[in-house]
Amino acid sequence: MQIQSTIPILASLDISETIDFYTQMLGFTEKLKMDSYAIVSRDGAELHFWLGTERHIAENTSCYIRVADLKVLYEEFKAKGVSLEPPSVRPWGMEEMYVMDPHGNLIKLGRDFQA
Fold it and tell me: Is residue 4 part of a domain?
């Protein structure tokens, strides 16, 4: 197997604000912080961010993260004050919930409902 993982690279309007949101609100760990680039990780998932100045780029970007238990994450995120709706089963057979970061990136978290 040659391909080991995929890593989204999302826009950030403020690297420090991005790291604070992902570490404090979503439980990620900071792996790298530079003036114009950042990396956070959690449970084997890794997200990269580049510094941009155009909000519309982030607002038109999303990434999908498969998870084991959405209810556990929902409760964790709600306890930290993240604004989000409870998980729900979508017509395409995935149970999902969505988190919008401070710059407009949509983080979709989901699991195969059939599994």
Answer: no
Q: Which two tokens stand for residue 25?
A: 């609100």
Structural domain count of the chain = 1
Q: What is the pTM for the complete model shown?
A: 0.94
> Is 63 within 8 Å of 105 (Cβ atoms)?
yes
List the structure tokens of 9. 């690279």
Measured distance CA(38)–CA(16) in Å, rounded: 9
Share of the chain above pLDDT 90, in %: 91
pLDDT tens digit sequence for 2-32: 998 999 999 999 999 999 999 999 999 999 9
Q: Considering the domain boundaries, does residue 46 fall inside one?
A: yes
Report the CATH number at residue 66.
Answer: 3.10.180.10
Amino acid at 42: R
Count Cα neighbours of 3 within 13 Å in the Cβ-side half-sphere.
3
